[in-house]
Design a protein that fits this description.
There is one protein chain. By secondary structure, the protein is of the alpha+beta class. The chain is 29% helix and 28% strand. The protein is built from five helices and nine strands. The chain has a seven-stranded mixed sheet with strand order 2-1-5-4-3-8-9. A hairpin with a 5-residue loop joins strand 8 and strand 9. The protein starts with 15 loop residues before the first strand and ends with a helix.
Length: 159
């Protein structure tokens, strides 16, 4: 299946969503900052827990390289809060129950599993630079090494 994701150089779409503490977080909060948005289908599922823990374990390295980390799913704020607290996630976990941001970032799409088609969240991560432009797109994510893979790429981008 081919997906029409955002591409390198595209302007990051605006968003305003609640984080797991019920605070509103928007694209404007990241003005002048580099950040990573990773999209995951459902809180507390095995693959996404591994990926989230990878971002948690590498969080200080992301901060040291000047990158913020943001996780987004369609889960409720309460589910996000339980997920973040259970695994001590130090980064923003945003709730997009309306799926508006998911659609704007082109990660809400038709998926196929065991012969059934359904709408769901694609496994996609975007690096967004301080100017609000997409710097890199990850559409093939290895949950176990994803955070480390991004750190490796950030080191290449910075040099």
């Amino acid at each position: 299946m081919a997906f029409d994701l955002l591409k390198q150089g595209d302007k990051a779409p605006d968003f305003s969503l609640e984080n797991y503490n019920g605070e509103i977080v928007s694209l404007n909060d990241f003005k002048g900052k580099n950040f990573i948005i990773w999209f995951f289908p459902k809180a507390s599922t095995p693959g996404w827990t591994v990926e989230g823990c990878g971002f948690r374990d590498e969080f200080e390295d992301f901060k040291n390289t000047g990158y913020e980390v943001v996780g987004v799913s369609a889960d409720s704020v309460k589910k996000q809060q339980k997920f973040a607290e259970k695994y001590n996630f130090p980064f923003f976990m945003l709730s997009d129950e309306s799926k508006e941001m998911l659609m704007d970032y082109k990660v809400w799409a038709l998926k196929k599993f065991m012969g059934k088609e359904y709408m769901g969240i694609l496994r996609v991560t975007y690096i967004i630079n301080e100017k609000g432009k997409i710097q890199k797109v990850y559409d093939k994510v290895k949950t176990k090494t994803h955070a480390q893979d991004i750190l490796t790429d950030i080191a290449k981008i910075s040099n």
